[in-house]
């Protein structure tokens, strides 16, 4: 219900002071309902913490955003946008981190999220150097399935990267960090500002500051390249030099790069956003269905994607 996401309660007493033993006196969820554990991740405006819901024993990841810091940096709207995006995405897709509740106290905003216990895909790629073709196929398929769902709900992520791809208990993928997400009002809508991370920014974002579903598809191409090659597709010594490479489509494949993956990357990293595989309108030759049908995905059972066991991470 709408109400779950608009929880508001009186300021909590400072830490260390006794709090009400029964935090549900006002019928609303609050920080008192959780036992906070270790820090799972830190962003510029937020800290994600492990938290156990006391009455059910269930574990969650709680994103804590500092209100003062958000205000001082004019980021309150960003936090609100993230919440609205997550609410819009709902709980229907297994590949997207679900928002259970939000609440706040005097100092912080709290987002109670799905816990992805096995951390970021980024650190796996880092530790392993690169991923096997089998793993890459599996995770790329899961990203595509989650993107397809997200885009069908009119949401673009705009900062898709391996740090925002988390692994759950079963080593299945969960997309997170919708702080840069954008809700489109219609199919033709474009978002006019750019946000994101240098290595995954598409040429149209650099040149005309326009993002669309196709910009997420570009990022997918960069991630697929990175999983197999173990390095960025576009990487310069500075952000400026990285952007030059992106605009010139200046990248190359290392020896031994899987041929079908290579073909797919070449169909994703296309300068014209409308020509990227998966970016076309449904029914067009480069729609999501065409992307799913690419030979790289031979053997992927799209219908059982979220129930087939993950291949060993290697
Ligand atoms: N780090 C950031 N978000 C997380 C989440 N939802 N689960 C686990 N670790 C995280």
TrEMBL record:
One of its GO terms (biological process) is intracellular signal transduction. Residues 34-297 form the Protein kinase domain. One of its GO terms (molecular function) is ATP binding. ATP binds at residue 63. It catalyses: L-seryl-[protein] + ATP = O-phospho-L-seryl-[protein] + ADP + H(+); L-threonyl-[protein] + ATP = O-phospho-L-threonyl-[protein] + ADP + H(+). Keywords: ATP-binding, Kinase, Nucleotide-binding, Serine/threonine-protein kinase, Transferase. Transmembrane segments: none annotated. Its EC number is 2.7.11.1. It comes from the Eukaryota. Belongs to the protein kinase superfamily. AGC Ser/Thr protein kinase family. PDPK1 subfamily. This is non-specific serine/threonine protein kinase. It comes from Phlebiopsis gigantea (strain 11061_1 CR5-6). The chain holds residues 96 to 409 of 528 of the full protein.
């Amino acid at each position: 219900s709408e109400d779950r996401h608009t929880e508001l309660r009186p300021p909590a007493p400072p830490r260390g002071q006794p709090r009400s033993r029964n935090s549900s006196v006002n019928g609303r969820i609050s920080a008192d309902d959780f036992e906070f554990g270790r820090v799972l991740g830190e962003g510029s405006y937020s800290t994600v913490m492990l938290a156990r819901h006391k009455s059910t024993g269930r574990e969650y990841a709680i994103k804590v955003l500092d209100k003062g810091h958000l205000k001082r940096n004019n980021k309150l709207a960003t936090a609100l946008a993230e919440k609205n995006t997550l609410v819009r995405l709902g709980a229907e897709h297994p590949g997207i981190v679900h928002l259970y509740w939000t609440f706040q106290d005097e100092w912080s905003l709290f987002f109670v999220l799905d816990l992805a216990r096995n951390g970021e895909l980024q650190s796996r790629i880092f530790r392993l150097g690169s991923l096997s073709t089998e793993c890459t196929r599996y995770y790329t398929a899961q990203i595509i399935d989650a993107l397809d769902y997200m885009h069908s709900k009119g949401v673009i992520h705009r900062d898709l990267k391996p740090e925002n791809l988390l692994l759950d208990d079963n080593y299945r993928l969960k997309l997170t960090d919708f702080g840069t997400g954008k809700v489109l009002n219609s199919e033709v809508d474009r978002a006019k500002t750019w946000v994101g991370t240098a290595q995954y920014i598409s040429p149209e974002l650099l040149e005309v500051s326009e993002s669309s579903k196709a910009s997420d598809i570009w990022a997918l191409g960069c991630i697929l390249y990175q999983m197999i090659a173990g390095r960025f597709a576009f990487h310069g010594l500075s952000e400026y030099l990285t952007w030059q490479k992106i605009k010139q489509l200046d990248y190359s494949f290392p020896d031994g790069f899987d041929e079908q993956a290579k073909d797919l990357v070449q169909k994703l990293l296309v300068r014209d956003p409308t020509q990227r595989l998966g970016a076309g309108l449904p029914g067009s030759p480069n729609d999501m269905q065409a992307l799913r049908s690419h030979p790289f995905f031979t053997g992927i059972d799209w219908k059982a994607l979220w129930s087939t066991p993950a291949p060993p991470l290697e």
